[in-house]
Design a protein that fits this description.
Helix 2 (36-45) runs parallel beside helix 3. The chain has seven helices and 15 strands. Helices cover 32% and strands 34% of the residues. It has helices at residues 11-22, 36-45, 62-71, 90-97, 109-125, 175-182, 227-239; strands spanning 2-7, 28-33, 50-54, 79-84, 101-104, 132-136, 141-145, 149-155, 158-163, 167-170, 187-191, 194-197, 201-205, 211-216, 219-226. The protein has a five-stranded parallel sheet with strand order 2-1-3-4-5, with helices on both faces. A five-stranded antiparallel sheet has the order 10-9-8-12-11. Strands 13-14-15 form a three-stranded antiparallel sheet. It folds into two domains: 2-125, Response regulator (Rossmann fold), CATH 3.40.50.2300; 132-239, LytTr DNA-binding domain (OB fold (Dihydrolipoamide Acetyltransferase, E2P)). The protein is elongated, with a radius of gyration of 20 Å. Strand 1, helix 1 and strand 2 form a beta-alpha-beta unit.
Length: 240
């Protein structure tokens, strides 16, 4: 699946571009954002392979969105295509934000598809990168494979990361900051003291009226799901 994010504030133009890209008979998912803020939220929640960015947005410049994209390690080499009527931004787009192409409005379907087909082929040839989360501790830097994480448990000012093989204690980190670092849509907070990788849950014990228990394959310790999060957890869990 190739995830394409279109960032365009004009609804008609955004829908038109989406239809053009959807006409490519491939394994493609189109995501849409009308503001820079929406785009940044989406790219943190979902792994995006290809960006089509309008430079003129109502809340911030598309160049600022590109700056955020490049600041995230997994997007340092992601394909970015700028769309605008302002050709004076072209040099800055290429040199500073390393965009891969530039489409000037008004564009044709042929122009869009030529660019998209070329970059999608590039995405599909790139082997998947093993995603990791990095913690800079006092005496060393710790890297943990994202897929190895079952859940995170808050213990006082620290967070304990549970994997199948061992526990990692990360000192002085809040749950919100931990969730932001993970940058993967399968992770969600399910309790004031727990973040769960929903993709790793093996079964759910609903016998306790106050909190459900989430269990993981080949791991004895459960994570908790409180009343506040039960509905949102099941929506995400049912989509896995």
């Amino acid at each position: 699946m190739v995830n394409i994010l279109i960032v365009e504030d004009e609804e008609l133009a955004r829908r038109n571009l989406s239809r053009m890209l959807t006409s490519l008979n491939g394994n493609i998912k189109i995501l849409e954002a009308s503001t820079g803020k929406e785009a940044i939220q989406l790219l943190k929640q979902t792994d995006i392979d290809l960006f089509f960015l309008d430079i003129q947005l109502p809340d911030m410049s598309g160049l600022k969105v590109a700056e955020t994209i490049r600041s995230i390690s997994k997007y340092q080499l992601a394909y970015v295509v700028f769309i605008t009527t302002h050709v004076q931004y072209q040099l800055e787009a290429f040199k500073k934000y390393h965009c891969y192409d530039y489409i000037e409005k008004p564009y044709t379907k042929k122009e869009v598809l030529e660019v998209a087909e070329r970059l999608i082929r590039g995405v599909q040839k790139i082997p998947p990168v093993e995603k990791q989360v990095c913690f800079e501790l006092r005496d060393f830097i710790l890297r943990i494979r994202i897929d190895d994480i079952l859940f995170i448990e808050s213990q006082g000012k620290n967070c304990v990361i549970h994997t199948n093989t061992r526990l990692y204690t990360i000192p002085n980190i809040a749950m919100k900051k931990m969730l932001d670092k993970l940058q993967r849509e399968t992770f969600m907070q399910t309790h004031k003291s727990y973040i769960i990788n929903t993709g790793s849950v093996d079964r759910i014990d609903k016998s306790d009226r106050n909190s459900w228990l989430a269990y993981f394959k080949d791991y004895s310790l459960p994570a908790y799901i409180s009343d506040r999060y039960k509905e949102s957890f099941m929506k995400k869990y049912d989509m896995e």
